[in-house]
Amino acid sequence: MNQWANIQAIAFDLDGTLIDSVPDLAAATNATLVECHLASVSEDLVRSWVGNGAQVLMQRALSHASSMAQDSAELQTQLAHIMPRFMHHYGEHLQQHSRLYSDVLTVLQKLKQAGYKLAVVTNKPYRFTVPLLDAFGLDGLFSEVLGGDSLVKMKPDPMPLQHLLQQWQLTPQQLLMVGDSKNDILAAKAANVMSIGLTYGYNYGEDIGLSEPNAVCENFADIAQYLLSQ
Ligand SMILES: O=C(O)COP(=O)(O)O
Ligand SMILES: [Mg+2]
Questions:
Q1: 47 lines ligand 1 (CB under 6 A)
Q2: CA of 54 to the centre of ligand 1 (A)
Q3: Which residue, by CA, sits nearest to atom 9 of ligand 1?
């Protein structure tokens, strides 16, 4: 039996899946580093640090720029000090250089029209997620939005997906996770739900196929072949 036919709800990752947000994340990272009298870093380097939320992004940036070990007490102290600055800078320029990937809006509209329940499950802090969805005209499409700080645990933990299953009274076979990172695929596998991996986003420079999602797509529009009758 075609397992795609069971799907009733879809959880979408945000950064690297719906929105290319690295340019603004890099700008906020660099504004914070420069304030600390540290050297700024390239956008490519920031892209390789995105995936585990804002705090881990800045932890990686600070460790790189200062040569302090990521888990050292000294780094943790400085991190606590600079996180509010990063949150400030990013909040000021959430979508100055960020953009929606091709076909995201139209495909999401078609999926919603076809009757799927849609959610965003991101590791980005919730306070940035909702304004970003608003700014790109995606706000009305999702019945649930979970940020990295909405629950006790974030992806790759299955908690956000299990929360959706409970909230929507669905079985794991009825939910699909779509994302660009191994954190999305690991969370899906841990929750026993199907997943699609996208190749164009951020995955620490690794091939998303290595995480073995149920399907790999090169463009967002390619997910439609599994979900919409053509
Ligand atoms: O903010 C991050 O580090 C990653 O966010 P994502 O889960 O939407 O990819
Ligand atoms: Mg992502």
A1: no
A2: 8
A3: 15
One domain, residues 106 and 50: no
State the distance from the centre of ligand 2 to the C-alpha of 228, rounded, in angstroms.
23
Measure the CA–CA gap between 69 and 66, rounded to whole angstroms.
Answer: 9
Consecutive sets of 10 residues in the chain, 230 residues long: mean pLDDT of each? 93 98 98 96 97 97 94 95 98 96 98 98 98 95 98 98 98 98 98 98 96 98 92
Q: What is the ipTM of this complex?
A: 0.98
Residues 70 and 147 in one domain: no
My answer on whether 169 and 86 are in the same domain is: no
Clarify whether residues 78 and 132 are in a common domain. Answer: no
- Work out how many domains the chain is built from and give that number: 2
When computed from its CA atoms, the radius of gyration of the chain, rounded to whole angstroms, is 18
Q: Enumerate the active-site residues.
A: 13
Overall pTM surpassing 0.95 (yes/no) = yes
What is the extent of the structural domain holding 215?
3-21+99-227
| Residue list, annotated binding site for Mg(2+) | 13, 15, 180
Cα 226 to Cα 35, 92, 96, 107: the distances in Å are: 47, 38, 33, 12
